[in-house]
Amino acid sequence: MTKIDLDQAQAQILHIFNSIYPMSEALEKSIRQHSKLTTFNKKAHLLQFNEVNKSIYFILQGCVRTYYLNDDGEEHTSWLLTEGELAISVYSFYSQQKSFEAIEALEDCVTLELTHTALSHLYQHHLEFNVIGRYLTEQYYIESESKANALRMLSAKERYHELILRKPQILRRVPLGYIASYLGITQSTLSRIRAKI
Amino acid sequence: MTKIDLDQAQAQILHIFNSIYPMSEALEKSIRQHSKLTTFNKKAHLLQFNEVNKSIYFILQGCVRTYYLNDDGEEHTSWLLTEGELAISVYSFYSQQKSFEAIEALEDCVTLELTHTALSHLYQHHLEFNVIGRYLTEQYYIESESKANALRMLSAKERYHELILRKPQILRRVPLGYIASYLGITQSTLSRIRAKI
DNA sequence: ATATCCTTTTGACAAAAGGCAAAAAATATA
DNA sequence: TATATTTTTTGCCTTTTGTCAAAAGGATAT
Q: What would the pLDDT profile of B7-23 be if each residue is shown by its tens digit?
């Protein structure tokens, strides 16, 4: 695992934020003060079921999944996230209620962590940061809609091929069982889809 | 159709906004200046395919659906929205690109309209308004996620019963064909689900 | 009231996807 | 390298959902 430097990681995320909306020195400083590197070993949980999701994790290295358990105890993967993406359990983080969803590292991970408390502080004391928060939420919302629409209007095969087009790296990094679940199908069905090219 | 008064409608939306984050007099005034009543007859389109979604509509009365066309020309309903909800085509409105989605009135509708230009102006000149925009986006994002998860982990029958629980009014107002589509199934399947109680 | 239009249900059959278990392949571990 | 472990594929059979077309039911307008 490549060594990751806090300063450099913070510079990276500040650059992303600044390209959305220019931040004041004070805001940048506050973000630096409130964020820290957090690592997770493969299979470790960033968030457990029934826990409140208290932090957002910007993935610097590695890959995570968020997943649900249905009434029969079956797992259903809802997001597969890699470098440059934000890992949260949407409902729990925004509402600060107990989570029905868990977040698990699928590889050893290095993240930049920002607590909900810190984020609220930033939003409150630097109103301009809300522009950035709003923008990022809009982007993830667009992606969430797009996933829901794919599940509604595409067949399993089409959803798989769309994923190959949009996120080919994921296929190489994530076990097919999780990918099948993310696509809303069983692993055997995915395997059969792959077999027929 | 009940007569709707602009002042009163604006008071209603200002009240919602204020309960999210207290607004300045100036912001309230600007929102009043930039919003207007817009009505749509049943079957009229709030947004056509390939058009840029230039306005957000707060539904005061009536019911709308947003829908996609797939490659075979079949319609797929993505949202069913009623009083108190915001009608937009998520991708097109936020990105201001041409829409793959259309918005249609399922009943005669009265809405409070706010253009994207006006909204940008509000965001730019009243930073606090971004708090409200961020919050609302978060809420719709949560719902979008919840829909995607239902499509992934619930059977058609379970999705139908969940909808009955969460939005029983919708069932009484919207033709079953649209509801089936919203649930990601065909109308015949929905009819069979209903037949078996 | 009757004709028209739109919505909903139903029937017969087809296709898609799931369940379960075993086999095969790929990876990790000693 | 051999062994254990995990991941992926496959076979067989069931269930769910889709397709297409026709029938039934409701609402609306003249």
A: 999 999 999 999 999 99
Count of alpha carbons within 13 Å of A6, Cβ hemisphere only? Answer: 11
pLDDT of B197 higher than 60: no
The token pair that represents B191 in the structure block? 């009819």
Question: What span, in angstroms and rounded, lies between the C-alpha atoms of B69 and B104?
Answer: 13
Q: Compute CA distances B24 → B29, B30, B68, whole Å.
A: 9, 10, 39
What is the three-state SS of B142-186?
A: HHHHHHHHHHHHCCHHHHHHHHHHHCHHHHHHCCHHHHHHHCCCC
Output helix, strand, coil percentages for chain A, rounded to the nearest 5: 50, 25, 25
To probe the interface with B, which of A93, A116, A152 has the most B CB atoms within 10 Å?
A152
Whether B145 and A149 lie within 8 Å, measured CB to CB? no
Interfacial residues of B (vs A; Cβ cutoff 8 Å): 68, 70, 74, 76, 78, 90-91, 94-95, 123, 127-128, 130-131, 133-134, 137-142, 144-149, 151-154, 181-182, 184
CATH architecture of B6-128: Sandwich (2.60)
Helix axes A25-34, A6-20, angle to 10 degrees: 140
Over chain A (197 residues), the average pLDDT of each successive run of 10 is 86 98 98 97 94 98 94 92 96 97 95 98 96 96 96 96 95 95 97 87
Say whether A94 and B141 touch across the interface (CB within 8 A): yes
Say which amino acid occupies A95. Answer: S
